[in-house]
TrEMBL record:
Belongs to the anti-sigma-factor antagonist family. Signal peptide: none annotated. NCBIfam families: ant_ant_sig (TIGR00377). PROSITE patterns: STAS. Residues 15-109 form the STAS domain. This is Anti-sigma factor antagonist. It comes from the Bacteria.
Amino acid sequence: MGTVAHRPRAWLEWAETEEGELVVRIGGELDLDSVPGVDPAVDGLIARHNGRHVTVDLGELSFFDSSGVTVLIRIANGSGSMRIRHANPAVRRVIEVLGLASWLGLESD
């Protein structure tokens, strides 16, 4: 019988493209319970790339609440500029209802 690897409820990773673009990917369910698990990655991102333009890809983020919004705000505050792409309708709705779409650079997909 095989084993099932534990996958965190939420995850965050980043990489620099060949063109020098910093892309942050966030996936899973980003809420009050899971945010502490991604906080170290956010801290590392801000420490290493403070002031740079960041593209945040939310294509694999299935759910987030106000705690998840704070992660996006922290990334925005630590970057020179930011844009968000591939947000699903539920995630997009939270960002828009809070009036943060323009400030966070939410793209229409």
